[in-house]
Amino acid sequence: MIDTKAPASAGTQLIKWAGWLITLFGSAHMVLTLTLLGAGRHAGAWFSGELWRADLVEMNPATSALWLSVDSFGVPLIVIGLIVLWLNRHGSTPPPFIAWVLGIWVAIDAVIMPLTPWPVLLLGAILLLVGIRRAGPSPV
Question: What angle do CA 68, 58, 51 make, to 5 degrees?
């Protein structure tokens, strides 16, 4: 059987790595906060309606755990990473604004919370931006 699929360019490979890195970072954040940090033990409060009356200024542990896990940046990062992977798999180059917005967001986070694993996401944003530039315009 002859493989007629064209070899992946360096740009598409970088985009693929970036997509996986972003997806895995978001997934790891969700899993680790729900399990190791114990946020998941507050699920009963989340689904009972207890948080409907919660004061966001003076967060209780259940509200704090929700914002640290399910309502954190983990879910959007998973979505962004999967969109990047999906576009790449279908031969489309992701728009550069995804890499720029992610990079700016990470830079702000690095200033606010320097002792977090922000360099991983910065690497993802850089890989994505370089991959997009190397891949060239997306066929329409």
Answer: 65
pLDDT of amino acid 69: 92
Counting every residue written for the chain, the total comes to 140
Report the 10 Å Cβ neighbour count for 50. 14
Look-up: residue for tokens 């940090």?
A: 37
Name the strand (E) or helix (H) holding 107: helix 96-112
Instruction: Please check whether residue 19 is in contact with residue 129, taking contact to mean a CB–CB distance below 8 angstroms.
Output: no
136: phi > 0 → left, psi -120 to 50 → alpha, else beta; which?
Answer: left
Model confidence at 7: pLDDT above 60: no
CA distance linking residue 140 with residue 126, whole number of Å:
25
**Cα distances (angstroms) measured from residue 46 to each of 19, 52, 61, 70:** 30, 9, 11, 10
Name the residue with tokens 């007629």. 4
Q: What's the whole-model pTM score?
A: 0.86
Structure tokens at 101: 């917005």
Q: Where are the alpha helices (H) located in 55-95, listed in sequence order?
A: 61-68, 74-89
Distance, in Å, from the CA atom of 100 to the CA atom of 125, rounded to the nearest integer, reads 7
